[in-house]
User: Fold these one by one.
Assistant:
Number 1:
Amino acid sequence: MNLSPESESEIVMDDLYIADQSALVEFCAGLRGAAWLALDTEFVREQTYYPQLGLLQIASADRVACIDPLALPTLEPLLERIYDPAVTKVLHAAHQDLEIFFHWRGAVPEPVFDTQLAALVLGDGHQVGYAALVRQQLGVDLDKTHTRVDWRRRPLVPEWLTYAADDVRYLPELYRRQHAALVERGWLAALTEDFQALTAPERYRQDPEEAWRRVREHQRLGGAQRAVLRALAAWRERQASSHDRPRRWILADAPSVELARRMPATLAELSGIPGLPATTRQRHGETLLDLIAAARAVPPEQWPALPHRPRLAPAQIARADELLALIEERATAHGIAPLAVAGRREVENLLAGQDSPLCHGWRAALVGRELQARLADVGDG
């Protein structure tokens, strides 16, 4: 896995706008042999289920290209470079960008290097934005005037293209500095597992039967009510994906929870659900009632369960406090927010012998293995 940047450290300046297939082929030919590419996307999804790509930005060691997917018959020459496993893809807050590629090909390009995740480990902020990181590390203030642009509109005005190019222009230099800092501190190997987790297909594959877990306030429902919510959320997910519409356009979270809580059995009862539009009742009322009735009949052993929180003995609770204090000490020493490392629940899972983020990746390297060793010593004693 090649995560090493090339020796160039200057910020790239040569910008291209590519809306012609021959220009794309020529540009991609110049990328052969590159060890890394900086990557960003501009998309819209306010009125769709799937993100709609409007622009794709690439930075190499000496140029930036804004590639127009709406003007090109195919992006295949570029995708060959992006999906090349010998090329590290450098992104900031990579999840949403990688989701687009997953929907295209059913797979995520790898390996990746996420500058937001690297910034966290290097003590530069938890979930720090790209503009803030560029200002902090490079002293450059980016123009964020065009954050609300509809990237499907054409023509793309020059100011928009400059804004989009800036979103990758400084990634190579951030990558170079972060890579060097991670190597110096011995953190690069620890982050490899976390970077690999970003490319796991299950992160991007939506299971309708698990969609209820993303509904706000689902934790407040009882077992039978959760069974109803599961049925409603699964139906909503399938409707939204098949019609490419936002979930909230099908059924918003608040009325979903109220439907699960009240479990109406008639259209008259359905009309009393706050936040449920009349158009939804008219169009889907009978379907909703059928889903609710079927879910109410599910036996208790098949009700969806909330994540199990282990019950700890008094001595273990005191031990958890000790471990949390150690986490705070180690995190603070590295300039990392302690809650970004772990909270009480993650520590309790570790104490109960369950899987915990503290057992993986950079968290394990920072303090997780030390916690496990201490717990092992207590057990041996």
Number 2:
Amino acid sequence: MLGNLSTKLQKILRDLKGEGRLDELHIEVAMREIRIALLEADVHFKVVKEFVSRVKEKALGEEVLRNLMPAQQVVKIVRDELTELFGREEAGLVFSKPFPSVILLMGLQGSGKTTTTGKLALWLKKKGFQPLMVSTDVYRPAAMEQLSVIAREIGIGVYEEKSSDAVELAGNALQHARNTGFDILLIDTAGRLHIDSELMMELDRIAEEVRPAEILLVADAMTGQDAVNSAREFNQRLNLSGVVLTKMDGDARGGAALSIKTVTGKPIKFIGVGEKYEALEVFHPERMASRILGMGDVLSLIEKAEEVVDEEQAQEMLKKMQRNEFTLEDFRQQLRQLRRLGPLEQVLGMLPQMGPLKGLNKLQVDEKQLTYLEAIINSMTLKERVAYKTINASRRKRIAKGSGRPVSEVNRLLKQYVQTKKMMNKISKGFSTKGLPKLNFPI
């Protein structure tokens, strides 16, 4: 996530820390490099100019230069100013009363609106709401079918009606939501260009018909300043309440994320971080700034872990580890929990890059290896998974053949399992079930 920008900023600030005392020349050189890094990340040039000016002014203050650790003070200033660019405060969703609340999603073609509608509906469902979805893209029947497929996959209701009038369809969906007890209506609109006056007028009429509590623009983070420009145009026409940035897990340079709030005045409310329907995160400005500077995002990692780790299972697992009864069956369960946290590169990116964790975000993680490990364990009998010492040479050959992996990988897995078992037994003795740590997976 914003990998290139993050790497460059971390290097600039790391070089600054290498200086014993800072003077104006050191600050000047660092600011010039930060300016270049931000421009290369496609951040709006006015945003870059103002950002660098504010950081430089604060970094050259007497309080910083006379400090015993001025470089650390500069890092704090950069983090605070990045947070300011992102919007400082987390912007939550606004709901109208009485229900149903209407959330209107719009954006350019190909920005990921329909998928984001499903992701947001699933997020709301997990928060205890009862969302209903409707597609008002009467120009592209495949869009309605796509939303219906998503609805079936995530188990959420969708309103369907044969109509060629998007405004009428939105109004009927809202009435249906009122009559059937849904408390949120998510309206997926047709993709359009901001210069298409006819389609923009249609959005005006839909908004007037349903009176949305939220008007969210779905923008592709990988398009950089194009996303910012379209956000500005949509906002001038419809007064957006916020932005959802998609494809933040890809090779997004960061320009859109760092520019949108300043250019439009509207906050980023969610970011899409993967293709799965669960891959939608609330946008936390301070956490994102810390993540970019290599300070980690442990809070988000804990929240992810809390979603996938069952408390009762975790307590039972701790008891097994304390009794030294951690089996290959348990090892497989831990692997599955680890995979449910999301792509490993994202998980490692949330860890602070300091001390013993330094450099973890640069590891090349092959997700397929976890699949292979699970395939090997699946090829074992229940007895073998419970009592690993029964796995002799002939059994290892059979397991290798059954999993389609070489015997060397079977041997390596068993070695990793034994090491993990020993480590977990030592760690678990330092905890009681009352003080159970949430992050309970093999390292």
